[in-house]
Amino acid sequence: MVDNLFFLYICINKESIEGNDYRSPLFLNMALDPNISTIEQMLNSILAEEPEYFCVSVTIKPTNNIKVFIDGDEGIKIERCVYFNRQLYKLIEEAGIYPEGDFSLEVSSPGIDEPLKLHRQYKKNISRNIEVVFNDDTLQEGLLEDVTEHDIILKRTTGKGKKAVTEQVVIPFNNIKSTTVQIKF
Questions:
Q1: What CATH class has 6-108?
Q2: For the domain bounded by 125-181, which CATH number is listed?
Q3: Which residues sit opposite 70 in a β-bridge?
Q4: Which of 24, 131, 164, 181 has the highest count of CB atoms within 10 angstroms of its CB?
C-alpha cells in the first residue's frame, strides 16, 4: 500500500481554464509541496509577458530542489531558460518561501525524452514521429498528423515497398498513458 501517492498539480494557464489544454495525470511517489501553487503563480506572471512560452510542470523535491519545465510554441533556447530562472529565483527569494539559501531552482525545457503532457505540446509536435503507449501498455508508432480537443490523429505505415499500407488512426486522449517524440536518424 502506498500512503504518499499524490496527484502532481500541473501549471494552470489560460488554455486549461478555457478547457483547451489536455493534461495527462502524472502521479509521483512523493508528498505534494504546498509551495508549488505559489511558485506556479509567480512563473505564470513572468510568462504572461511572453505568451509563446508556457509552463509544462513544476515539482519540488523534499530537499527544496525546485524543477521547472518550460516549453515554447517554437521551442525554447537556453538563454530564455536562464532568463526565466533568474526572474523566478528573484521572486521566490523576495517572497521568503524558503529560508535564505535553502532551495535550488532548475529551469529547463522538458527535453525530447520527456512524455508530452499538454495539448499545446502535442500541437507543436505535429509532423513528428511519436510513440504512443496506451493504457493497456500496448504501443503504436507513427507520424502525428493532427491534434483535436479530444484526440490525436496518427499516420501509420505498415509493410515495405509495394506492400506498404498507410492508415490514419484516431486515438482519444483518454486512451493514452504516455506519448514521446521519436527521433529517427
A1: alpha beta
A2: 2.30.30
A3: 55
A4: 181
